[in-house]
């Protein structure tokens, strides 16, 4: 049995708060690793594609995304809505975070269907899938945790074993609230690392199918025309954006590709030679150089800054400066890949 979202508890460091203060601190709170590791916009946008590509590398998750998601038509709308859900869970009040978990659980009840990809059937032996299958829910949950850790350590600074362990421990109540049974959810960071290795190993179920490769094209070369909805007052913008070839901007996703395990990246069939590695390295180095010069209000998520203000500036004061303690990567959203847009 999973944990009822109403029973999701705060970070242990927050348990002595009075009820009103606990509500303001939300499901994690300003002393949590989650608040620290989910603040910076650029890292969220890098880890997000990485997490989604890892999720659909599981054949049954790819089936659900293909049959129940519209991100191939408008991936930008899905990115906005998914990011909003994740940030509500991490930085919202307790009521807001629990309500978002409940909303997503209700939606995922209807995400089920037949397995249509022949390679998916061969790899898993399954003929049907369901998003609330605990094994699939665990994989999606795990990819989001992993993306946060990988992006932070690759692009910002190493984490100590204790920091990694604490972050993982903070995510366990959320996993339980999404219906993952306690006996299936890895007990600690060492068990979590072993789980990932087994899933990605030769005997594991992760295999990039033709369906996943088709979905990946929408992730790595999303159409620009839907972005015109952000500026409806500009006549003809949709046509202009629609005329831009993917090659003109696809290179901006190369840093996210650099975060993938090499075997998974190769299975997607994306080029990864000297040019891609050099451009990816240049983009990340440029961000690192500019980051100390940018004010927090420019580089951190508005939801994180609003949460800092809500709790009296604790998070901003504690997390706003310094190398490791300052800011952090973007965990990919804690919502599932089938997530229905809210707008």
What does this entry look like structurally?
The protein is an all-alpha fold. The chain has a two-stranded antiparallel sheet. α3 runs antiparallel to α8, α3 runs antiparallel to α11 and α8 runs antiparallel to α9. The longest helix has 22 residues. The two termini are 32 Å apart.
N-to-C CA distance: 32 Å
Mean pLDDT: 84
Helix content: 55-70%
**How many strand units?**
2
User: If strands are numbered along the chain, what order do they take across the biggest sheet?
Assistant: 1-2
Number of helices: 18
Q: Which percent range describes the beta-strand content?
A: under 5%
| Series of secondary-structure elements, N-terminal to C-terminal | HHHHHHEHEHHHHHHHHHHH
The gyration radius over C-alpha positions equals 19 Å
Query: What does the largest sheet look like?
Result: 2 strands, antiparallel
Category by helix and strand content: mainly alpha
What is the fold's blueprint, element by element?
Layout: H1 19-25, H2 33-37, H3 41-56, H4 59-68, H5 75-91, H6 94-108, E1 112-114, H7 118-124, E2 128-130, H8 134-155, H9 161-177, H10 189-200, H11 210-220, H12 237-242, H13 254-258, H14 262-267, H15 274-290, H16 296-299, H17 302-310, H18 314-319
Antiparallel strand pairs: 1-2
Summarize the structure.
This protein has 343 residues and is an all-alpha fold.
Main features:
two-stranded antiparallel ribbon, mainly alpha, 343 residues
């Amino acid at each position: 049995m999973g944990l009822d979202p109403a029973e999701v508890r705060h970070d242990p460091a927050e348990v002595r708060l009075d009820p009103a203060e606990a509500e303001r601190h939300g499901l994690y709170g300003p002393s949590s690793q989650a608040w620290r590791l989910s603040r910076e916009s650029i890292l969220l946008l890098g880890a997000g594609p990485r997490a989604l590509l890892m999720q659909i590398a599981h054949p049954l998750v790819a089936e659900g995304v293909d049959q129940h998601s519209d991100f191939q038509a408008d991936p930008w709308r899905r990115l906005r809505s998914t990011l909003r859900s994740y940030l509500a869970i991490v930085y919202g009040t307790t009521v807001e975070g629990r309500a978002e978990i409940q909303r997503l659980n209700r939606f995922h009840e209807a995400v089920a269907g037949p397995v249509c990809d022949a390679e998916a059937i061969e790899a898993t032996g399954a003929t049907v899938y369901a998003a609330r299958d605990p094994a699939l829910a665990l994989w999606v949950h795990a990819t989001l945790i992993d993306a946060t850790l990988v992006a932070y350590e690759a692009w910002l600074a190493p984490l100590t074993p204790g920091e990694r362990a604490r972050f993982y421990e903070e995510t366990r109540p959320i996993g339980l609230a999404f219906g993952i049974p306690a006996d299936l959810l890895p007990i600690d960071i060492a068990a979590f690392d072993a789980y990932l290795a087994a899933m990605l190993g030769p005997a594991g179920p992760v295999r990039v199918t033709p369906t996943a490769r088709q979905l990946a094209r929408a992730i790595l070369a999303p159409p620009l025309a839907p972005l015109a909805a952000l500026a409806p007052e500009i006549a003809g913008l949709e046509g202009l954006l629609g005329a831009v070839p993917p090659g003109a901007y696809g290179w901006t996703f190369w840093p996210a590709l650099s975060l993938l395990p090499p075997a998974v990246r190769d299975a997607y069939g994306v080029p990864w030679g000297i040019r891609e590695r050099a451009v990816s390295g240049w983009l990340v180095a440029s961000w690192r150089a500019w980051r100390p010069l940018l004010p927090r209000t420019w580089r951190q998520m508005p939801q994180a800054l609003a949460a800092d203000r809500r709790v009296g500036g604790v998070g901003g004061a504690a997390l706003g400066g310094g190398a490791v303690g300052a800011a952090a990567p973007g965990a990919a959203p804690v919502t599932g890949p089938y997530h229905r847009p809210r707008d």
